[in-house]
Amino acid sequence: MATIAEGCDAADLRRECEAIYSALAVFQRKVVIVLPNPNRSVSADITVIGGGILGLCCAWEMIRRGARVRVIEGKRIGAGSSGGHVGALAPHAPENWNEKKAFQLDSLLMAVDFWAEVEAVSGSSTGYARSGRLQPVADAEAAENLRDRIAASARQWPAEMAMRLTDRPDAPLLPQSPSGIWLEDRLTARINPRAALAALAEAIRARGGEVIEGSAARLQDISGPVLWATGAKGLESLSQDLERAVGKGVKGQSALLRFDASDAPQLFAEGIHIVPHGDGSVAVGSTSENEFAHDRVDARLDEIVARAREICPQLAEAPVIDRWSGLRPRAKSRAPLLGRWPGRHGHFVANGGFKIGFGMAPKIAAIMADLMLDGVDAIPGGFRLT
C-alpha cells in the first residue's frame, strides 16, 4: 500500500491519497469478513462419546468448523462395529428413489473431498478409493430385468458413474458369472475401516482436539453439549431410557485374506461383499445375524469365506490373516438415528446406519455439526430421533 512521504506538495499529496483509496478498494474486493453465527458457542467444549465412525466423523467436522472437541472412547478407537474389515461404500439400488437414498448419494459424493482432507491433515492413508463394483448376472432374463435399475442409475447418479452391463470387465479379480455378463458401476467406493478410524483420530489431534481411549465417560465431569455415538450398546441404553425399542445389535463377522488386487473393483455376489484393499488384502463379509449365542467369531465366518472362494476362485488359496466379529447397531427403522436425546437437554445422538455407516458418515457429520453448533435442524424426517 502507498505511504505519504514527508515534504510532499498538494499535487503529490493528492496522488498519494488516490493511491491509498485505490488500494483500499482492491482490499475490500478481496477480503471476505466472516461474522460469527449468533447461535454458535464455539468456546464451549463439545464432548463426543464413542470412537467409531460416526463419533469420529462428527468430531472431525465440528473441529473443522472451529469447535473445541474431545472424544471419549471407553475401550480403543474402532473397538466396536466400525473396526471390521469390509469398508464397502456401496449405493442403494437407484429404483424407487427416496429421501434415504438421496442422502446416501450426497454422502458418497462428499466422500472424496472429506477423506482427502483427513489424509492431508493426519498424514495417513484411509484406504479410500472410488474403485467401482462388479456383480455377476445369473442369466439373460436377469440381465433384462436389470434394465430399469440401469435406467434409474442414469437418472439419479452422475452420468459417468451409472450402472451398465458388460461382458468384458477390466478387472484382475472376478466373480464367476453363469451368463458371462456382469453389472458394473463406478459410484461404489471402498475404505479401509481401521486405517480410516486411525487417520480420523490423528487428524482430530492434529487440529487440537482430544481423543481419550480406555476411559469411561463421567457425566459429572462433562460440561457443554454431548454427542452419544455409542453403537449397539447406545441403542440399548436409549431403548431403556425412552421405554421403547429403538434398535438393537446385529452380529456381523468378516475375514481378511492375503491377496493383492489393490486396483480391482469390489465384488458383490450372493449377499457377500468381496473388497480388495490397497494394502494387499481382500475383505470378505459380513454376516448379518439377528440370533446368536455370543458375539465372538464362530463357524458362520468359515462358511462365508468358503462361499467367497467359490464365487471368486482366484481366492481359493488366499490365506486368512484376520477374523473379526462385533455387534452392528441397527435402528428399528434401519436408517441412521440422529438428533436431540429426548428429555436430556444438551445431549444428542448419532447412531444406527446399519451396513451403511461409513458411506453415510460424511453427511451425517455435516448434519450433526449444523445442529449442535448452529442450531440448524436439517435431519431428514425418517432419520430423526423423537
From TrEMBL:
Q: Single GO cellular component annotation?
A: cytoplasm
Read off the InterPro entries from this record: FAD-dep_OxRdtase (IPR006076), FAD/NAD-bd_sf (IPR036188)
Q: Does the keyword rRNA-binding apply?
A: no
Keywords assigned: Oxidoreductase
Location of the FAD dependent oxidoreductase domain = 45-371
Q: List GO molecular-function terms, semicolon-separated.
A: oxidoreductase activity
Keyword Cell division in the entry? The reply is no
Q: Which Pfam families match?
A: DAO
Under SUPFAM superfamilies, the record lists:
FAD-linked reductases, C-terminal domain, FAD/NAD(P)-binding domain
Against PANTHER family, the record matches this protein to: GLYCINE OXIDASE, SARCOSINE DEHYDROGENASE-RELATED
Q: What is this protein called?
A: Glycine/D-amino acid oxidase
